[in-house]
Amino acid sequence: MRIQKTDGLKAVGMKKLAPAGAALALVLAIACGGGGDGEATAVATSTATPVIESISEPTSAPTLSVPDPTQTPTIAPTLSSAPEPTSTTAPLPTSAPATPTATAASAPEPTVAPTATSVPPTSSPPTATSVPPTATPAPPTPVATPSSESLVRAMAIVFGAQEFGVSTSDVKLDSSEPITWPNEALGCVVPGQLYSAGAVEGWLITVSAGSASLEYHSDATGGQIFTCAEAERISSLPSINVVSAASLSGVTSVVVSAAQGTVEVVRVDDSERIELVLLALSEPTYLGDSSSCESLFQVAFVTASGSTTFEYACSGQSYVLRGTQSFWAGADGISPAGFQRIINQALAAREFPGFPPTP
Length: 359
Hints:
Distance between the termini: 121 Å
Strand order of the largest sheet: 5-8-12-11-10-9-6-7
Shape: elongated
Largest sheet: 8 strands, antiparallel
Strand content: 15-25%
Number of domains: 3
Number of strands: 12
Number of helices: 10
CATH architecture of the largest domain: Sandwich
CATH topology of the largest domain: Immunoglobulin-like
CATH class of the largest domain: Mainly Beta
Radius of gyration: 60 Å
């Protein structure tokens, strides 16, 4: 067996000897006869002759100092009789070399030491350090949330740019004022449209582009924002006072029937309530384009001399009020919001099954 140099230790996984490994290499070098110079000495294993040469003086005294437990006690007396020339046992000293041979055979025991080279794999833990720690991502930078006022201003500029037909950079913000609107109409009451009561906090914003300007009405958050253009458009339509035009005086009952007028749905005979209905119907009824929508109800105003009937409400157009009288001029009227509210409340108060009733 040949003992390799210390570089050969890499073959069993040792990349670099630690101080303990260096000491072990030195021990191996000395044990193999290298004398500590770093070079390993070859150990012969083929014959016993080189082994005998490695022993300086094979005397009987050293041999007796290391007894082999496997030998019998008769060997010692045999050695003491060696001086007698006539003894037939004189050739026995030839067995003496056998004893050193057994002693010399134990010399190669350091060859077992290379087996200990499997211990240094404890150097493997450093490989765990090669895994870089996972970096903790930095928290995202919080994005500023725009205030309600700035959001409403931005919406007014964008809508204004669309109306003016220019880019937003050409729109100027002239004013922005907080305001409390009386109801959800936000100061732009569209004739014939119903609004819930109650004050609404909001903004009045003015924007301009060149010589043109627009005024936007909004609630506090910008959920509703518009100009009064629609209200102004409808308010510019021709209007009539239906009570005056139809000469509705001395009314004793107000009857709401199904569209065909054959089934009565609601009847109002109370004079005070009748007065409220007439007062609401005295507000302007704006005349718009004629439509072919099918009316849902008929409203009849009964007097001592007869009755005057109008068609009221279409599906999806609850404000429609029209009739066959000449003052309608073939147009559909936009009934006053107060009149709609009273009639609708009367219809809603009717007991189940409601309307239209079964004939």
